[in-house]
Specification:
By secondary structure, this protein is mainly β. It has one helix spanning about 80-90, and strands spanning about 15-20, 40-45, 55-60, 100-105. The chain folds into 2 domains: about 1-25 and about 80-105, no CATH class; about 30-75, no CATH class. Helices cover about 10% and strands about 20% of the residues.
């Protein structure tokens, strides 16, 4: 395992706790979105590779939708409630706390150049 750096780089994010805002209770999805089950999640890059490259498959049968070459698919992840509650417990914060996360270096790309 690589050794940690001697000096930490400055954060590219600011995290603020927002007061007086109710936490959402449902999983958010944009309008006109359909949730479909994932039927395969296979690691393609191999153990120890520097990037996590995966092959995903989704079941859209019987949903009145088709998917053609060049179409776009969006994935909206969510946290498992028991892990989110454990995380907030570890932070010693109420589980309904709402955070705002903002990039501090807005002119830079999130990807390596």
């Amino acid at each position: 395992m690589p050794q940690p750096p001697d000096e930490l780089m400055p954060s590219v994010y600011n995290v603020n706790v927002l007061q007086g805002i109710d936490a959402p209770t449902d999983q958010w999805t944009p309008p006109n979105t359909q949730l479909v089950p994932m039927t395969m999640n296979r690691l393609e890059s191999g153990e120890g590779y520097e990037r996590d490259i995966r092959h995903y498959e989704f079941d859209i049968a019987g949903r009145g939708m088709d998917y053609s070459l060049g179409d776009c698919l969006a994935v909206y992840p969510h946290n498992q409630p028991h892990l989110a509650h454990k995380f907030m417990e570890d932070l010693k914060m109420p589980s309904d706390t709402v955070f705002e996360i903002q990039r501090t270096d807005t002119g830079k790309s999130a990807y390596r150049e």
